[in-house]
Structure formats: structure tokens, C-alpha cells
């Protein structure tokens, strides 16, 4: 017998798939097994992807497999098909997409520990020392225990233990352990669903367990009880003997979220997140593989959980950016992968959000997804939202970063012992310029995104198309000279608060304060337990914070998000404001939200104030169509990088020509536009210069052709090219 093996190597743009002979002493070789094979003069790891009865290759040229590395398969044929689909859809390598599927801890293997237990058949009348008697009593009380625990608890030596083992009074043996300790939670019963919930649950239930591929979008406002819907659908799946995967965004996978699933389904749940060590992740993976659990709750890559009989895949907060792997290959979007997996498994896909991604809602309106709605918050009023125009504040002589209104409300909260959240999305680029009098921000006339300020050359640049102008010092709209670069961040907010309210207890949560492991959790708990009055933070605090005593949320400057140079900035702003506003008034007291901005008429802000998704969607989709952004086109972002700026710029120019030729070769009639080359929003990272070319096309196939050309390019002098098909961040 022969096999095809794909080599597990990541340095090339093209896979090496080679044929090997299976020697007689290896039997039971299956697709999905990890093997060691000879390549040239060394040995390389690879995966069996095909079993062959015969081959046309000359027999004497075919080398035998050296060794099988595990006694289990690391993927089955259905997952292999998913990986092959990913290779084709994202134009990556098979070895790269398989890398997503294979658990990283597999090389460390299973952890075994020594356990010790009593031999129930031993005779009581044998002579034993008092130390030995202590051991026997301990085992009588505790049953089977870890040897290390026994030695520690009783402070006995291993030789004392061994003497009992030698006489057959106790046994010591190796056993597998699961490295992840699951906390014990109180069991909770299911809630009686509301009318709205019941309708949604029944709709989806009709497809579960029927081996049909169905797609649903659940649009439910924050606090409308989406999670309870998920729980009852998972229960149905379990009843049908099917498995479920629940994906949540990284920052939402808090102990509270995990608790909600474990308290309902107990040890039928496995958890996969990036906080696990390789070993812990592998142990969870084995529980799934062995069929010990029926539900997986996890972040993005939990989509590859090795279930074999999936009934339901849920993606909560489906609009979240973290569902796209943007930083490294394969740059996949887990919503697409989940959809494919459901198609392969004939399962149900359920996307849920209070602010669905524009593309998702567009699909739902075109019946590609079945649209389900939850319109009411359970037992809570929506908070009262007020927008404060900051240019009016300035005109009235207040040039603090806090409006008089917000100042007054913070003070009131402090006096009443209620808690306040102050939100400022400083992450990313605050490098846009703005007129402090009227809020004017210079934009690109071609792309309708804000221009990025480049201090060193005194220019404002569009990083999509390269359009640039000298930086403005006088506002073209109102003539004011107070046009400046906006550099306000969370740290500044903290300083101001401490100045204004010296006795307030303040916490800050952003990338800088949460670098260490567990810091996020610690700040959260401190705030939740009432050890601080005010929490200042970036989008990290926009989700999952369910703290009853928070009655005030202040958005310090909504414009920061609004002017991120990305065509999705309007959508992001609306999503963030909606999420943040949802943090106020979760308890018995009503919530107030104050949004500070220079652009009070912007539709993202107006719709967020009115908590009106549909009107936001209608405006946004119109704008997307006018400027031909997704869902009306697909995008391809090509980044050319290298240590020498001139080389990067030259390479970008030749890539541009190549791209242009490739697109023109296509015979199909489609909308295509090549933007750039232009410097990336952050032009230099770790001494690498980065330039980018963005292509918009109504035909994704054309973009795939461009990727294929890029994959075969010969590059020199430290230049690298990476690309992202359907990017979420530009
Ligand atoms: P979402 O996920 O839509 O933001 P949650 O699932 O967190 O909403 O529900 C909000 C709150 O309402 C939670 O405290 C939850 O326990 C409660 N809840 C949900 N469904 C019901 C129900 N049918 N009866 C009573 N309380 C419910
Ligand atoms: Zn102005
Ligand atoms: Zn432009």
C-alpha cells in the first residue's frame, strides 16, 4: 500500500505532497495520522492525506514511511475536506490550514501521573508500622489519590509507600490526567422562555437533528436573552445525540460565560481558549475526540474541535473582529469556515448579535440567512442616551475633555456611591487631525475615509489610495485656526479625573494595564466588588461587563472611533456605542449614557443614541454601495514589506503592474479597482517599511487569481509580500 503525505513545513508558498510506501510492519495506517518520512537526507513530519492501492510512480523510487508518530488520527476525512476548502478559498497551503486543525499540544502527548489506591483484598493482620497505618487510613478515607498528594499531605517518604507496594497492600499505577481543572459550578435549570425566545427556539429546533444545512441570524438587542436561547438549542442537540460548538470572542470568554454553560451541562462541556497551555488544550481536545463531551465553548479555533457528529454551531457576537485571523496565515474568517463545516456536517449555523455585521444583515435580508429577532430586553429598561456636542462646550468656554453635563453626572454618581464607566477607544490610530471648533476632519475624496496625519512630512495621506495634501492649519469649513492632531488617550482621561475628583478611586483597563496574565480579570473583579468608583477603558470594557451598580457610562470622545481610517469606522462606532451603552443600568437602578462628540449629526451616533439598528443599516448600506465597499465588492489587501524603503516602494510599483495585468486578463465583466500603492497606516513596524495595495472587485475569483500570482512571485533582498482576502482591518 502507498500513501500521500503532505509535508508539515511552512517556509514555502506551495505544498509538497509526496508518495510513500507503507512498510509491512506498519498496519492500521489511516488518513489523518502524523508520520515521519524521509525527504532528501533528513526526516520530515507530515500528515497522511490519502491511501493508495497502487501508484504509477516507479516502485524503486518510492521510499517507505519511517515511523507513525501517534496511535490516533489527528483529523478525519471531513476535517481534511474542510482544510482543503480553506486552502482553495483563502489561497493558503494545505499544511497551513491543517496547522489550524491539529492541536498544538500533540507533540507533548498525554500526561500521565502516578496514582495510589488500596488493595481491598489485603489481610488486616499483617504487621505494619504506625506510619504505614496512617497511609492506609488516608486511603480508606480518600479512595484513589495522586501519589504526590499523599506524600505531601502525610509527609511520608516514598520508601515507606514502596514497602506497602512490595507487599501488595497498596497499588501504584500510571493514569492519564487532564491538565485543565474545571471549576465546580452549581447546577442551574433552564428558564421558562419568554414568548419571543420561545418563537426563536422553536424555529431553530425544527432544523436540529434533521441532518439539514440551515443558516440563521439571531438579531437580539443586548440583554434580550440570546444566551438562554443558545442553551436550550444545545440541550435539544444533546437530546438528538448531536454535538454543539459555541464560539465567543476572546474577551467575552470570561469565567462568567464559561459558568453559564458548565452550570447547565456540567462535564459535557469542554473549553478552548488561548489562555490554555498546549498541554491543557491537548487534554481538552482529547476529551472532545473521545466523545467524553458534547459541547465545546471556545474562541475562534474551537471551530476545528474534533467532533464527528455536529448538530449546531453558534457564533455569538458574530460582528466581532476577532473572528477573522488577520495577523498570520491562513487569514481565515471563522464565520465562513463554520458555514462550510455546517455544510459538510449537514448542521445548523446560528449567528447572534445585537449589532449584526453589515454583510450578515445584508445576507439575511436576501434570505441567505433566516432572520430571527429578539426585540425586548428581559426585565430591564434600555438606558437613556444623551449626546453632547463638544464644539458647543468649547464655544461656551469649557475646554476640558469633560462636558459640563458629564462632569455633573460623574460627581453625582460619586456622591451616591454608584459606579461609572468612562470609555475612550484610543487603540489604533489617533493620528487624524480635527478642527476643535467645528469637528471637521479632512477626508479622502476618493475613498471617503479620514486622512492620516504623517508628522515627519507634514502631510495628510489616504492610506487606501495614496491621495495626499499638505496638512491643514486653517479649517476649510469654519476658518478656525484650532485645527490639530488629536492625541487624547485613556491615560490622559485618568489624569484629568484624578485632578477633578482627587478622592475618587479610579481603575484603568487598556492594553497597557492588562499586559500580565490575569490582569484583566483582576481589574474587573476589583471594580465589580466595588473597590473603585470609576473604570476608564478602551473597547475591552465594552462587552460582558454585567455590573448592577454601574449607572453611568460616559463616552469621552466618540470621534476617535469614527475617524479610524477604515471604511468600517461608522459600523465600528455604532457597534461600540451600542455595546458600551448596554453596560449602564444592568441592576435595579436605571442607566444613563452620555456620548461626547463633535459630530452629533453623524448617523452612527444618531442611530446609537436612538438604539436603532435598522436606520443605521439603511444609511450604511447606501454608503457602501456608492463607494463600492463590501458587501458589494470583495477586497484584497496586499502588504509589501522590507527593511529598505526604496526596495519596498519599487516592489510595490511592480506588484501594482502585475496586479493590473492579471485583472485585465480576465474576460468576465466585473467591477475592479486597484488602489495604491500607498504607505500602510503604520508605515514602519520593527524597522520594516510597509506599503499596501488594495483591490476592490465584484468578482472574488479575480482576487484569487491575483493571490495565485503573488504566491509564485520570486522576491529578493528581504522583501515580503502578504495578502488578506476579505480583510476586516485595512
Ligand atoms: P444577551 O445574551 O442577549 O445579552 P442574556 O442571555 O445575557 O442576554 O440575558 C440577559 C438576562 O436575562 C440574564 O440575566 C438572563 O439570566 C436573563 N434571562 C434570559 N432569559 C430569561 C428568561 N426566559 N426568564 C428570566 N430571565 C431570563
Ligand atoms: Zn472648523
Ligand atoms: Zn483614497
Write the layout of secondary structure elements.
Layout (H helix, E strand, L loop, with lengths): L1 E6 L9 E5 L12 E6 L2 E11 L14 E2 L8 H14 L3 H8 L10 E7 L11 H13 L2 E2 H8 L3 H9 L3 E7 L18 H11 L8 E7 L5 H14 L3 E5 L7 H11 L3 E4 L5 H12 L5 E4 L11 E7 L17 H12 L2 E6 L4 H8 L4 E5 L9 E6 H6 L8 H13 L2 E5 L9 E3 L16 E3 L4 E3 L6 E3 L12 E3 L4 H11 L5 E4 L9 H10 L5 E4 L12 E6 L3 H4 L6 H13 L10 E6 L5 H8 L2 H14 L7 E9 L2 H21 L6 E14 L2 E10 L2 H12 L8 E6 L5
Parallel strand pairs: 9-14, 9-15, 10-12, 10-13, 11-12, 13-14, 16-26, 17-24, 17-25, 23-24, 25-26
Antiparallel strand pairs: 1-2, 1-4, 3-4, 3-5, 6-7, 6-8, 18-22, 19-20, 20-21, 27-29, 27-30, 28-29
The structure holds adenosine-5'-diphosphate (ADP) and zinc ion (2 copies).
Give a structural overview.
It is a single chain. The longest helix has 21 residues. The chain starts with a strand and ends in a 5-residue tail after the last strand. Helix content is 32%, strand content 23%. It is of the alpha/beta class and 730 residues long. It is globular and about 100 Å long. The protein has 21 helices and 30 strands. The strands form seven sheets. It has a seven-stranded parallel sheet, with helices on both faces. It has a six-stranded parallel sheet with strand order 16-26-25-17-24-23, with helices on both faces. A five-stranded antiparallel sheet has the order 2-1-4-3-5, with no helix packed on it. Helix 20 crosses helix 21. One zinc ion binds next to loops. Adenosine-5'-diphosphate binds next to helix 7. It holds the Pfam family PriA_C. InterPro entries: DEAD/DEAH_box_helicase_dom, Helicase_ATP-bd, Helicase_C-like, P-loop_NTPase, PriA, PriA_3primeBD, PriA_3primeBD_sf, PriA_C. GO terms for molecular function: hydrolase activity. It catalyses: ATP + H2O = ADP + phosphate + H(+); Couples ATP hydrolysis with the unwinding of duplex DNA by translocating in the 3'-5' direction. Component of the replication restart primosome.
Amino acid at each position: 500500500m502507498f500513501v500521500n503525505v503532505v509535508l508539515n513545513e511552512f517556509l514555502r508558498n506551495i505544498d509538497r505532497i509526496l508518495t510513500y510506501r507503507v512498510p509491512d510492519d506498519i498496519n492500521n495506517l489511516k488518513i489523518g495520522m502524523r508520520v515521519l518520512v524521509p525527504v532528501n537526507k533528513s526526516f520530515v513530519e507530515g500528515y497522511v492525506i490519502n491511501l493508495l492501492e497502487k501508484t504509477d510512480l516507479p516502485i524503486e523510487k518510492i521510499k517507505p514511511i519511517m515511523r507513525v508518530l501517534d496511535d490516533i488520527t489527528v483529523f478525519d476525512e471531513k476535517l481534511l475536506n474542510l482544510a482543503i476548502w480553506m486552502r482553495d478559498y483563502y489561497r493558503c497551503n494545505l499544511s497551513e490550514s491543517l496547522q489550524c486543525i491539529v492541536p498544538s499540544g500533540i507533540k507533548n502527548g498525554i500526561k500521565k501521573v502516578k496514582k495510589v489506591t488500596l488493595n481491598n483484598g489485603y489481610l488486616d493482620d499483617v504487621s505494619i508500622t504506625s506510619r504505614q497505618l496512617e497511609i492506609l487510613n488516608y486511603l480508606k478515607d480518600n479512595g484513589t489519590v495522586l501519589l504526590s498528594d499523599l506524600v505531601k499531605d502525610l509527609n511520608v517518604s516514598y520508601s515507606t509507600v514502596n514497602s506497602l507496594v512490595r507487599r501488595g497492600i497498596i497499588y501504584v499505577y500510571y493514569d492519564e490526567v487532564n491538565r485543565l481543572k474545571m471549576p465546580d459550578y452549581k447546577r442551574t435549570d433552564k428558564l421558562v422562555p419568554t414568548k419571543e425566545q420561545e418563537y426563536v427556539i422553536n424555529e431553530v429546533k425544527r432544523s436540529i437533528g434533521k441532518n439539514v444545512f440551515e443558516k440563521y441570524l439571531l438579531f437580539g438587542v443586548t440583554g434580550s436573552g440570546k444566551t438562554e436561547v443558545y442553551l436550550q438549542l444545545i440541550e435539544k442537540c444533546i437530546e438528538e445525540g448531536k454535538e454543539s460548538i459555541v464560539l465567543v470572542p476572546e474577551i467575552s470568554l470570561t469565567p462568567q460565560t464559561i459558568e453559564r454553560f458548565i452550570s447547565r451541562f456540567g462535564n459535557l462541556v469542554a473549553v478552548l481558549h488561548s489562555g490554555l497551555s498546549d498541554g491543557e488544550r491537548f487534554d481538552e481536545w482529547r476529551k472532545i475526540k473521545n466523545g467524553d463531551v458534547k459541547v465545546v465553548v471556545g474562541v475562534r479555533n474551537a471551530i476545528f474541535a474534533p467532533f464527528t457528529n455536529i448538530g449546531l454551531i453558534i457564533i455569538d457576537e458574530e460582528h466581532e473582529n476577532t473572528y477573522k485571523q488577520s495577523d498570520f496565515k491562513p487569514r481565515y474568517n471563522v464565520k465562513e469556515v463554520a458555514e462550510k463545516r455546517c455544510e459538510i456536517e449537514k448542521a445548523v449555523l446560528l449567528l447572534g448579535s445585537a449589532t449584526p455585521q453589515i454583510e450578515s444583515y445584508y445576507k439575511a435580508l436576501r434570505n441567505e440567512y433566516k432572520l430571527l429577532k429578539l426585540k425586548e430586553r428581559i426585565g430591564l429598561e434600555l438606558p437613556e442616551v444623551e449626546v453632547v456636542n463638544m464644539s458647543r462646550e468649547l464655544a461656551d468656554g469649557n475646554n476640558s475633555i469633560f462636558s459640563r453635563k458629564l462632569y455633573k453626572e460623574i460627581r453625582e454618581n460619586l456622591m451616591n456611591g454608584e459606579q461609572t464607566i468612562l470609555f475612550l477607544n484610543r487603540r489604533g490610530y489617533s493620528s487624524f487631525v480635527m478642527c476643535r471648533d467645528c469637528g471637521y476632519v479632512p477626508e479622502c475624496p476618493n475613498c471617503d475615509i479620514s486622512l492620516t496625519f504623517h508628522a515627519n512630512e507634514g502631510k495628510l495621506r489616504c492610506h487606501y489610495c495614496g491621495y495626499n495634501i499638505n496638512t491643514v492649519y486653517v479649517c476649510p469649513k469654519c476658518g478656525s485656526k484650532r485645527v490639530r492632531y488629536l492625541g487624547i488617550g485613556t491615560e490622559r482621561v485618568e489624569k484629568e479625573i484624578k485632578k477633578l475628583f482627587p478622592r475618587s478611586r479610579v481603575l484603568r483597563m487598556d492594553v497597557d494595564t492588562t499586559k500580565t496574565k490575569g490582569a484583566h480579570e483582576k481589574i474587573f473583579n476589583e471594580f465589580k466588588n466595588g473597590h473603585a468608583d470609576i473604570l476608564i477603558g478602551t473597547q475591552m470594557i465594552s462587552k460582558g461587563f454585567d455590573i448592577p451598580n454601574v449607572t453611568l457610562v460616559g463616552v469621552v470622545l466618540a470621534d476617535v472611533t469614527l475617524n479610524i481610517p477604515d471604511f468600517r469606522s461608522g459600523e465600528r462606532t455604532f457597534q461600540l456605542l451600542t455595546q458600551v451603552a448596554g453596560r449602564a443600568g444592568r441592576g435595579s437602578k436605571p442607566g444613563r449614557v452620555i456620548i461626547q462628540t463633535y459630530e452629533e449629526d453623524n448617523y452612527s451616533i444618531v442611530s446609537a443614541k436612538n438604539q436603532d439598528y435598522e436606520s443605521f443599516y439603511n444609511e450604511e448600506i447606501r454608503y457602501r454601495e456608492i463607494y463600492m465597499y463590501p458587501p458589494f465588492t470583495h477586497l484584497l489587501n496586499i502588504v509589501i514589506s522590507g527593511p529598505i524603503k526604496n526596495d519596498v516602494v519599487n516592489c510595490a510599483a511592480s506588484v501594482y503592474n502585475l496586479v493590473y495585468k492579471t485583472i485585465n486578463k480576465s474576460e468576465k465583466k466585473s467591477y475592479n479597482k486597484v488602489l495604491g500603492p500607498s504607505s500602510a497606516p503604520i508605515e514602519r513596524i520593527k524597522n520594516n517599511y510597509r506599503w499596501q495595495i488594495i483591490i476592490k472587485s465584484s468578482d472574488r475569483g479575480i482576487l484569487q487569481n491575483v493571490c495565485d500570482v503573488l504566491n509564485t512571485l520570486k522576491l529578493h533582498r528581504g522583501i515580503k509580500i502578504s495578502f488578506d482576502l476579505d480583510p476586516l482591518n485595512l
